[in-house]
Write a structure and sequence with these properties.
CATH architecture of the largest domain: Alpha-Beta Barrel
Radius of gyration: 28 Å
Structural class: alpha+beta
Oligomer: single chain
Number of helices: 13
Distance between the termini: 68 Å
Length: 761
Amino acid sequence: MRQILDFNENWWFIHADVDVSEARPGEGELVSLPHTWNALDGQKGDGTYDRGSYWYVKTLDKWEPSAKYSRLFLEIPAAGQQAKVFVNGEFVVSHEGGYSAFRADITEKCTEEFNTIAIWCSNEKCDAIYPQSADFTFYGGLYRGAHLICVPETHFELLHYGDLGIHAATEPASWDKEDFMLHIRTKICGVEKDNQVIYQIFDEDGKEVASAARPADSPDTSIPLYKPHRWDIKNSYQYTLKALIMRNNECLDEVELKFGVRTFCCDPGRGFLINGNCVPLRGVSRHQDKLYQGNALTKEDHIRDAELIEEIGANTVRLAHYQHAQEFYDECDKRGFVVWAEIPFISVMNEDPLAHENCITQLKELIYQNDHHPSICFWGISNEILIGGISEKLVENHRELNALAKKIDPYRLTTIAHVTMTPKDGPMHEITDVESYNHYFGWYGGKTEDNGPWMDEYHEKYPNRCIGLSEYGCEGIITYQGGNPKCKDYSEAYQAGYHEYMAHMLERRPWIFCSYVWNMFDFGCAARSEGGVTGRNNKGLVTMDRKIKKDSFYLYKAYWNPEPMVHICDKRYSLRSEENTQIRVYTNQERVTLFVNGEEMAVNEVKRHVASFPISLSGGKNAILVKAGDVWDAVTIDRVEKEPESYVFPEASEREEGVANWFQEVGSLNLSEEMKYPEDRYHIRCTLEEISENDEAMELVTKAMKLITGMTLAKEEGMWDMMKKMKLESMKEMLGAMAPDGFLESLNMKLNEIKKENLNG
């Protein structure tokens, strides 16, 4: 039977793109896997992190084939973003795509006493590999480790899109809805006459409940399951399927996988149903990185992330924006999280046909490597892809991807995440089984209160579409505190207030089949510099180092987790200058009792999981205690003469002043006139790339973007590649109320004053 060995220690990392002949053990830095070279600069903040091509080199002692183990494979669970494998200087295999597993048969190459395994790894930009551009760091490295797999000549296939060589899917039996059929598809290499495959199915107690036998040269089969236990959100029951290749009474090779039995669907009016029960999917999105580790996560890191998601009470996870580690999918299976899994077809489509082929390959790898996981119910085929514009080819590619996903796996639903300005009646709709929007009303544009009416209007206009909310959120930086939070102050309190509305809005609309907070954890984005923090997206409910749970975390815990809890908000607002203040509390209990300096002050009813107490602070320290049933929480608040300046993000007030000054500069322009778009002058229908051709126009638009969004726009820096095809006009719906009345009109008029012939150089 096969043997799987860790191959993670004593790798030499050569931080240079040398020729393979120079990639030798002893050169560079000795490292252990998992490893990324962007652990630090992946959160740099100006987009100039190290995107290069480097080497990992290791020595493998001479490998002697035997009757038991005649083939040797190297397994790479992921290499960001492309890789080539060499043994003793000879090329073996290449792989394009930074998130899926691949293997190399190195049997014939390992003939020396000491064999040099050299892996060239690159995260340089490549037109033929997705993602092309996105709001997260494209880490480079062997960040999920490596394995050696030893198998006999006859073995389950190891080179088919990185899968296990066996696939299992369930569906209700035709004769009884409580019985199921398990469909098994298998690929075997080196089949000999009279080889047989034995399938065994075990329940969670280890009892064999079903089996089957097939000739190894025609191994596919279907096995009936009599009234099996269901995998469900509250009861994630899993069976184990073992497959054995037998030669007479000898087992040549064996693989096993876990699977679950469930039915699910989406209904436009009822939302998500699992095993016949309506269960709105309410959860979080997740990126796979940590502070100063990058994406080189350990198994323990994945488990800790899953524990935190379980603690908050989420029943679903969107694994953005690429294939995640098997360890995390396993945790989702175990804990009953419904998973939205997707490929990194995001933000921008490259017209290169090779890029589309790469998209197809990554989708095949995602499905083939993960279709046994019962947690996965959705295959996502793209995210915010209209940021880069729309074309007939883009629509055609989506239809092809959707058809491919349905062909490979007809048992799951396909989905898509639309950017907020995607037209409601455009050609991108009704391609996938279900669809969702990413909306940031209340952060990037509009008001928080716009979210509910937008969803209601969409649902009323398109009652036959299953619609979800695939992203929503806002930044929360725990340094910034205060009693009067407002949009773009980046305060923890504004983030909490935003989510108070969103959690209640979603609770009232079960027909929104899914919703995902963006994001569970702060994550690395080397192109970002926002809110006084570089290289990070701070929309997480938990900090990037997993040390601090923000107030918003406890709000959702109050909504989603039935375990009794109570949490005092604004604990980090511990130095307050005003005598009169509010104590806000999140809880899933009916009422809360407040004590100040040991004295009971009030008992308040809880509404929408929030209780609020107005109190007067005495000078010095104030001991605050709240009790709700059998649970309690406490904090000390100091009354001070002046609050720390660090509580306020400096640019928050500067932005308001800047907008006022903008309109003063507009002067006598008539903003009520119809906007004009002359061909020989700039206007808001020009793309950012076109505008960047003129220094004056670019300076104007950069200033406008900074005032309205707080983000710094610079050509060839940061998120430029993602945004350069956008038109300012197309951003109008996204910006909404964030742009004051007349702002875009005034910008268009100012751009009209600049002739296009005034180009750089």
